[in-house]
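User: Design a sequence. Structure:
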């Protein structure tokens, strides 16, 4: 139904932040491949439902990136489920997932669910703090997580998460060369056309989050940089 291997660009909206109708229209009509709803903190069912109903006015695919079992609702096109491969706490790798599948497993349409193998690389970001991710990683460490995601666990997505800071395009390039089928998502610190173009050359899909709330016109320019 949705072929993420064709995607190049995703906007990530935070249910914990306000966005006006006119800004949301620009985002949804920008030519991005999808709008993903997700955040680390303050993710409530009200926020998730509000963004879903407002993004639904447009034809752009709408994804919920699940970070809290209390804030899941039917009605999204796809559900992305993060599993933080470099967290030492089982809870963030398979623990919460086990609880959620116990509760919703029989109701779930598994064709709508894609697991993201997360590798968090900015130790200062909220997701790293929450999951106590080990971000002191060498190139070999990151490549090994990518290989595990693809070859061992057959995950559809490997997500290099720098949330809040611009990452290392050379490392992203190395990881891209490690992957064959698994789609490489890059997210973090993309604000400008040039940054999007640079990361877009090495990652399959770039994710643009916070800059939407900081400088929307520049954020919109990132779509044209990769498409
Ligand atoms: C009928 C019905 C309800 C259907 C739906 C079925 C369905 C989809 C069920 C889900 C089943 C399932 C397996 C759920 C998993 C549950 C879960 C809670 C998993 C844990 C996820 C996880 C590891 C979270 C940790 C944090 C994380 C990695 C978040 C990702 C998003 C992220 C990094 C955002 C950036 O953060 P932000 O808040 O924007 O940070 P700043 O403010 O600093 O920018
Ligand atoms: O907010 P930014 O830094 O753009 O990061 C995007 C996304 O990877 C966050 O999960
Ligand atoms: Mg954010």
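Assistant: Done.
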């Amino acid at each position: 139904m949705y072929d993420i291997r064709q995607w190049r660009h995703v906007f990530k909206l935070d249910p914990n932040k306000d966005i006006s109708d006119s800004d949301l229209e620009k985002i949804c009509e920008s030519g991005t491949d999808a709008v993903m709803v997700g955040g680390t903190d303050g993710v409530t069912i009200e926020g998730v439902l509000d963004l879903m109903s407002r993004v639904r006015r447009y034809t752009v695919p709408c994804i919920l990136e699940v970070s809290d079992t209390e804030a899941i609702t039917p009605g999204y096109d796809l559900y992305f489920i993060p599993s933080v491969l470099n967290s030492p706490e089982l809870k963030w790798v398979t623990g919460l997932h086990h609880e959620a599948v116990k509760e919703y497993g029989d109701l779930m349409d598994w064709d709508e669910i894609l697991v993201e193998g997360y590798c968090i690389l900015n130790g200062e970001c909220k997701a790293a703090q929450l999951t106590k991710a080990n971000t002191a990683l060498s190139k070999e460490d990151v490549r090994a997580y990518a290989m595990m995601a693809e070859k061992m666990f057959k995950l559809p997505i490997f997500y290099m998460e720098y949330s809040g800071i611009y990452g290392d395009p050379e490392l992203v390039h190395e990881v891209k060369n490690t992957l064959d089928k698994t789609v490489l998502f890059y997210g973090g610190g993309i604000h400008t056309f040039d940054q999007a173009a640079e990361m877009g050359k090495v990652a399959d899909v770039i994710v643009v989050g916070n800059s939407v709330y900081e400088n929307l016109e520049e954020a919109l320019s990132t779509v044209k940089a990769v498409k």
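The chain has nine helices and eight strands. The first strand starts at residue 9 and ends at 13.
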